[in-house]
Amino acid sequence: MECIMKRSERPLVEKLINFKEKHPVSFHVPGHKHGMLSDLPLDIRTALRYDFTELEGLDDLHEPDGVIEEAQQRLSSFYGSSQSFFLVNGTTVGNLAMIYATCRAGDTVIVQRNAHKSIFHAIELTGARPVFVSPVWDEATMTTGGVTAVQVGKALQAYPGAKAVILTYPSYYGLTGVEMRETINLCHTYGVPVLVDEAHGAHFVVGEPFPYSALDLGADVVVHSAHKTLPAMTMSSFLHIRSTIVSPEKIVHYLRMLQSSSPSYLLMASLDDARAYAESYNEEDKIIFMKRRVAFIKRLEMIPRLDTIETDDPLKLILRVKGYSGFDIQQKLEAEGIYGEIADPYQVLFVLPLLKVETSYPFDEICKKIETAISRLNGSSRTVEKVELPPFNEGHSRPAYTSEEIAHMEIEWIPYEKSEDRVAAASIIPYPPGIPLLIGGEVVKAEHIQSLGKLLQMKAKFQGSIRINEKQIVVVKKRTGGIV
Fold it and tell me: Do 351 and 315 form a contact (C-beta atoms < 8 A)?
């Protein structure tokens, strides 16, 4: 209770509490009737007492004029946007809405190549034609980072009619780079809006020591996964607009079309609560968080063979053991009950909790379990080969075909090792992080084959069109004469 009292006002949360305390009788949806008909575990059934619908006084997400409108206005005021929205279908729906609001079929869009799959799905659904800008490889984290202003500038010069530039910031691993403001300003000189998938940066709003938000750096539309780094429920996200180029009315239009017509009040309440949590996060909280983080890292550094790698975002921490893949490390950690965010060929990524002064976390116990896990990596160490994802040059490129064109072509499954110079008919996505290794319509290169082989050998997990056991991918069938 003390923690709750310290938070900023939460209008939607407070309204739901007041409504529930009236002991309303349900002759409306949902069918679980405040949890009475549910056989879910007690802890979950308890939450169902607040799982309401658009009843009198509870407002309507799609036509807000009451408590939801107030909650969204508080969100907008805190983040400094001209308008902000609750998303109950995840950042995916925000990415869809911002791209639908700026692009039509046939339009050219410039997109950072290591974007999340939801960005590429949105481009495919709108029928826009993407121009990919290759990310820079970061040697410290062994991951792809951002793109440079020079790269984006060259793409804009080559495609001056581009309708949008779509960027990812920060990267999944917390890399921000140093050129986001310059890149945004450059795009605006061309009159092109900048749309940013800032899924992993909802907490940047609390200020130093965390990086700037792309919204404060001038982006036109920014989408946040509040559930990733703030205490919101899964699928709960924010969308913010601060633009003279992008129409808020179009964003609203597409959110009404794309979001559920029965939005979850539990998800919306968790968004209201997450905003309040961040808004009440003060300097003392940040000092205590950083002290605990530093102590945690120092304790980890005492574990034999374990290396820690820090990134631009203090919430992200990478663990690495020389001679072992991240999948090896992940397996041992999970055997001790420690679950990281993602494993890759080199390492495991942790997302640290955004702790407040009054909130504890069992770091001592965690460190002991991690030490036990690392000690059990007792097999012969092996060389972990470099796998750049995605393996592209430093310029920009276009796919050979659009998804719509591929839909009218013949396709076939072939061994991935024999796919060089063929056109991928569908995407292949190591997941997590959900960044495509290949996108449908791209020409398969030797680097793709090499990276895919290494990932299969390491037993990485995939989404998309790949037959793992047969080691096959689907490509556009060659036409007569050997021409695709």
Answer: yes
**218-240 b/e (C-beta count within 10 Å ≥ 16 → b):** bbbbbbbbbbbbbbbbebbbbbb
Q: Is 124 helix (H, G, I), strand (E, B) or coil?
A: helix
- Contact residues for 151 (Cβ-Cβ < 8 A; gap 6+): 133, 134, 394, 395, 396
Token readout for 271 is 């968004």
Fold entry, domain 399-476: Molybdopterin biosynthesis moea protein, domain 2 (3.90.105)
- What are the φ and ψ backbone dihedral angles of 170, each rounded to 5 degrees? -75, 180
Could you state, in chain order, the average pLDDT of each consecutive group of 10 residues for the chain (484 residues)? Answer: 55 96 94 95 95 95 97 98 98 98 96 92 94 90 92 96 97 93 98 98 98 98 98 98 97 97 97 98 98 98 97 98 93 97 93 96 97 88 59 71 88 94 90 80 89 84 86 82 46
Per-domain residue ranges of the chain: 46-279, 283-375, 399-476
For residues 201 and 42, give the distance between their C-alpha atoms in angstroms, rounded to a whole number.
33
CA distance 99 to 111: 11
Of residues 216, 211, 140, 202, the one with CA closest to residue 176: 211
CATH 1.10.10.10 fits 283-375, yes or no: no
Q: Which CATH architecture has domain 46-279?
A: 3-Layer(aba) Sandwich (3.40)
